[in-house]
């Protein structure tokens, strides 16, 4: 499954508790809609590490990397290239 | 939250009000200390603050609102938060820009006993003609000692000081200094004598009868690591009697001299507070303090209001296993999280800690029902420093926590562990009757506590130890067991591996530094210059962000309800060292939102600014 689809599925199941509401698109702001908060971020980091075997560094934890599903998928791609799984 | 009200003026140059409430850091001046370690976990990391304890009591809002309703102006200046966010801010110059006939400081939690007294002395030196007053539970307990300090003009006793503070400010602003008819005061006369007006104002209903207006905070955008979050406080005192707590029934009876130890707030006030967030409620969390003392009827009405106003999520403190009907309402009302605090997995220790109304087996049977009812998560807090609790017992709590994580798959049931630091509450049963409960008390007076706060090693800061755990044991077992618990969470995928590695690294660095400091102190009675440099560097790193154990990631300052929203950014600029780039990422950016306030330059900035300041 493509990254954006898997991340979207995780968000709907774990952060939106199965309630997608009006629909969640890859470029919707997760922060403005209040979908991704600090507790959700922690769960997201654990998911990304487990699912994609990537290590998200402190400096990666900035809004630009978590603003949208597409941005998160981009971070995964970037980390796969620059920081291979241990 | 920075708009002007009534006769108060907040400009770039000065802040003027009838009453200015200030919140001090726990240790003053923490920015310059290289002789004590603000060690990771020495603040327990149970809430999202640093060991400077930059959160002020919610009662500040009540006082401010109450005075405004009576035509007086009041502003809140969070000195602690400003010092953290702007490391080169000149506090004396800041204080010099504040004009008020009355300055108020909180000594609610004892952790502020050093910083608040030092700030009061500075206030008194800079504004000798203004009145410096104190309030809070600890201020009430130590009123007779506190008033003898040269920086203190009056202590307002009690759990609800709206009336006496209002009367006091009204008198002072018209130049009167005879307070003999204002209740709950201990104060210095103009001749320097100490007068006590008794302690008779003890409202038995409608606690802190004013409404906190969150509409200003609603404009602050939540962010990635700092979620917008407010608190509700529906009562004061307690329906419970935990013997380590200074807010328990026992403590309230003794400190406040009341027989009725739970005084509720009018629910209409709470509804108004909830309503004041407007549409922002949809992306706001609530930490529902002390709802464990609420009746089912009040709790259900509160839940109806939560649902009506559409709050994103609510964290409910619960002492008992919540009843099915309430669980269902919680699940229907919001994204609900329950915080249980059995304190120990061992039912005997749990009971001796004032809990123990359920066993772990009962809790494990209740958890699926709670989750089925729609509760999204359950945090289970355990405590270090309880009666009968040995090192082995704490280790067994961690082993139990692992079984809990495995049984429920981690994410939705989260065990947590924290030490009771820095103090056992004065006024609590354990503090007042230590021998009976196996406790030794090292600090009795306010001054002893004040000195303890600046002990180099945090285990020597503790004002207590138990027959089963020495102070040193408490420090050692804290790092051992929290480290172990973090490791387990990492293995089970509850915490990201990167976060676990970072915490382990911090714990290792902390324990190494503590050991080297202790060795140096035992050997030479002081810390050598090289070690002091290390301590300073460590403190700057650890105080560059806030964190807590539920979300153990580094979070930049700004955006929390208790961060400073009063001092204008240009005033902050003028009070900081020229090289300090701090204000450029100060208040305006918090208001602009996550993108600006959560720049990754944040953490390095604190350290960079401090280096510039000291070189």
Quote the distance from N terminus to C terminus of chain A.
Answer: 23 Å
Poorly predicted segments of chain B: 581-615
Rg over C-alpha atoms of chain B, rounded to the nearest angstrom:
23 Å
Query: How many helical elements of chain B?
Result: 26
Main sheet: strands, sense, barrel of chain B: 7 strands, mixed
- The mean pLDDT of chain B is 92
The residue fraction in helices of chain B comes out at 40-55%
Topology:
The complex is a heterodimer of chains A (86) and B (615).
Chain A lengths: L2 H13 L22 H15 L10 H4 L2 H14 L4
Helix pairs in contact in A: 1-2, 1-4
Chain B lengths: L8 E2 L4 E2 L2 E5 L35 H11 L4 E5 H7 L5 H6 L1 E2 L2 E5 L6 H14 L4 E5 L1 H5 L1 H4 L7 E3 L5 H12 L11 E4 L5 E3 L18 H4 L10 E4 L2 E3 L11 H8 L5 E3 L2 H9 L9 E4 L7 H14 L3 E6 L5 H10 L1 E9 L3 H6 L7 H13 L4 E8 L6 H18 L4 E7 L9 H4 L1 H4 L1 E3 L4 H7 L5 H4 L2 E3 L4 H21 L5 H28 L4 H14 L26 H7 L11 H6 L1 H4 L4 H13 L1
Parallel strand pairs in B: 2-5, 3-4, 3-6, 6-7, 7-8, 11-14, 14-15, 15-16, 16-17, 17-18
Antiparallel strand pairs in B: 1-2, 8-9, 9-10, 12-13, 19-20
Helix pairs in contact in B: 10-11, 11-12, 15-20, 20-21, 21-22
